[in-house]
Amino acid sequence: MTSTVITGVGELTTNTDDPGTFTGAALVLDGDRVVWVGPETRAPEADTRVDVEGRAVLPGWVDSHTHLLFAGDRTSEFAARMAGRPYRAGGIAVTVDATRQASEAELAENLRRHVAEATAQGTTCIETKTGYGLTVADELRAAKIAATEVDEVTFLGAHLVPPGEDTDDYVDLVCGDMLDALAPHVGWCDVFCEQGAFDADRSGRVLRAAAERGLGLRVHGNQLGAGPGVRLATELGAASVDHCTHLDGSDVEALAESDTVATLLPACDLSTRQPLPDARALLDAGATVALASNCNPGSSYTSSMAFCVTTAVLQMRMSIDEAIRAATWGGARALRREEGDGAVGVLRPGARADVHVLDAPSAAWLAYRPGVPLTHSVWRAGHRVRR
Ligand code: NIG
């Protein structure tokens, strides 16, 4: 194992509490872990020294919500939306068709390409979902491919009722044979609880069946309108409820009183011409907020966490520190990976060595220089994956 000391850090964001941002700091990576963080003047020797010449350093982005197991694209649907058509859950069926027709090699290559694209922009921990297969065999194939490339895999059989199928029969399949087949290959189960997808009762059935098999729970909720998603997620102790675009006061209160993370997906809201979520209400009430890309071919075809951070600061009244924390520590919390040995979204001894160096003296430049690519170099689990 070789060790690396990173020096010349302009500003270091650690997401540890006291304080979370340092100047004059250095850090040491050994193998796949961070082993030391402190003042550069006291930095221990290491096999390699990398001087980042005054650049800002932060934990790699933790993208806790993507849908990268897909084939095809939906450019024409997007263009129609920009011409005034509304976004509808039914568009998912277009990607389901393309995905079922794709070979395993094509799906794997598409996934690798998108993960590489994200990594090059500073994302070092990614969750991705099934949900474009919607048969036992296609969902299983997606989960197995996903497990080779990403940190966390989520089963989303309850993404859409396949066209022409009976809703209750399909929910029976998801709760029975599909979960039996998928549970050994995934850590999480998600459900799209929304009008046009799955109502609260059916979503609850799926989530309870998943919990019985030991899976962690996640919910797509309150994306296209007010609805029961947040209530269901908090009642069932889901790790995260994602979208949260249309919340009322009781949703905000329920999130603030729960351990469920509110994962906001601003690129999706912009790409579907929805309002942006009220991050301020959530933060002021004391809820935990994460930011994620929701990279998928329908509602949010971007892997750029920097874009999400920029939008959160410029348009959602999040401070720079809040937005950066939400896209790193918040995502880690949504995946329950923010603590313990190998934690992500933090830079402290014992954390995974996931480091993002910006071509900027301060992380504030992510909002100050919107749209400018600022990733300089990236380490993932101690490997330098971009320089
Ligand atoms: O999170 N909301 C449901 N699922 C995805 C959209 C998938 C699609 O349109 O293909 C989302 O936005």
Automatic annotation (TrEMBL):
E.C. numbers: 3.5.2.7
Statement: the UniProt record of this protein carries the keyword Metal-binding: yes
Molecular-function GO term, any one: zinc ion binding
Entry-linked Gene3D superfamilies: Metal-dependent hydrolases (3.20.20.140), Urease, subunit C, domain 1 (2.30.40.10)
Residues holding Fe(3+): H65, H67, H220, N294
Pathway: Amino-acid degradation; L-histidine degradation into L-glutamate; N-formimidoyl-L-glutamate from L-histidine: step 3/3
Cross-referenced NCBIfam families: hutI
UniProt-recorded name of the protein: Imidazolonepropionase
Species whose genome carries this gene: Haloactinomyces albus
